[in-house]
Amino acid sequence: MAVPQVLHSEWTKIRSVASTVWTLGLAFVVTLGLGVLISVVSNNDFDSMSREDRLTFDPTYISFAGMGLGQLAMIVFGVLVVSNEYSTGMIRTSLAAVPRRGVFFFSKVAVATVLAFVVGLITAFVSFFVGQLILGDHGAAIGDPGVLRAVFGAALYMTLIAMFSMGIAAMLRSPLLSLGILMPFFFIISNILGNVNATKKVGQYLPDQAGTKIMQVVPPLHDDAPYGPWGGLLIMVAWVAAALLVGYALLRHRDA
Predict the structure, then answer these.
(1) Where, by residue number, does the polypeptide cross the bilayer (predicted)?
(2) Which stretches of the chain score pLDDT less than 50?
(3) What pLDDT, on a 0 to 100 scale, did the predictor assign at position 256?
(4) Alpha carbon of 162 to those of 59, 170, 214: distances in Å?
(5) Rounded to whole angstroms, how far apart are CA atoms 160 and 165?
């Protein structure tokens, strides 16, 4: 099959699975819903904040407060896009139809990445504008320095999380095993490693810890990360590239 035909078949496979709509829809709803909740709380508490908290008040980042949970839905999306075919046995049929495994794998990743980016872009802009509407006088404008970068960065962050999950799922091939590793890693382990003094210097180079830097406009207090927003995003891109390349290498050399 030619590349356009492979891309079309991957698009057909992704959109015909109900879990695709559910996971991407959940990523939008959870990110927006929690962002709205935190924005309401932050707006109500602003007058009682200390001087230091007001100086580091980041209305843009607050509107993305739901991203921590929303990324879990993106992880599920990335894992299911790759591993569904292994769990159903359809991978043998797919590889028989597209023997060039590089074309098969990267076409799947490309289609899912575009879809994740579109949903991420909608989620980021809606979360930002609704959050700023709630924050009112304490909010930021899209034209303020660093804000547009942070909003696009939020969309890129969601996309990269999905791509990283695709790479891990290609390595492990099992949806349960992939989710069993990725969920606790991003939800618990990474946060512990990134916030405990003894492991902070290592934890800040993990993909999510480095990637979230792109969504910050006002640096938090005592931020000693040796990289800025774009440096953090590049670290995350390096993790994603490594996961996808290892996933492809294993797909190329293993039996279906």
Answers:
(1) 21-41, 61-82, 103-130, 150-169, 176-194, 230-251
(2) none
(3) 66
(4) 26, 12, 17
(5) 8
